Fold this sequence. Notes:
Layout: H1 5-10, E1 19-23, H2 31-40, E2 44-48, H3 55-58, H4 62-71, E3 75-80, H5 86-95, H6 101-115, E4 121-125, H7 131-135, E5 137-142, E6 145-150, E7 162-166, H8 173-187, E8 189-190
Amino acid sequence: MLWPKAVQERVKTGNDRELVHSYPYRSACPSTVWTELVESASDEMFLAGYTNYFFWTQVPHFADTLRRKAESGCRIRFLLGDPECEVTRQREEIEDVALSVSTRIRITLEHLERLGPLEGLETRFSDPLDAINHVSLSVFRFDSEALVTPHLARLVGHDSPLLHLRRRDSGGMFDRFTDHAEELWGRAVPARP
């Protein structure tokens, strides 16, 4: 009664306060959002997509930015799928696209190898038992914001929806998704070059 209906519809009051924006496709999220989040991260950047290859084409000067961030003390983690595991092979059959899942992972590994060893930068492969949980959900954390892509059945990541979240309270959507990624990280193994 105190708030006009127009205001109520625009003010987030419940669990959706952490939802900054939603996109029907990851590819519909403007590249400026990705760039701003990468640039603004100062403490932690956790890229827990199965391939993460698109960062090298989506974010201008991504390698230089990673180097600068690592040198300034930002913790940077890449959680990738193992290009040799069975889940990767199965996903390639499902997607049936020319730029295969294993190729996309190897693109990321090649770019990371070119960076050389950097203090604060770590890369792991998800544990084989967790790979199915990893391939179906990408979580990209930038300090207290995250972009999350739940992968739909037979679609490539850029064709799946994306949620832009900002942490507000403990136990919210942000924590649930990032805790999932942390759990996968905890069982992951160091990536092979």
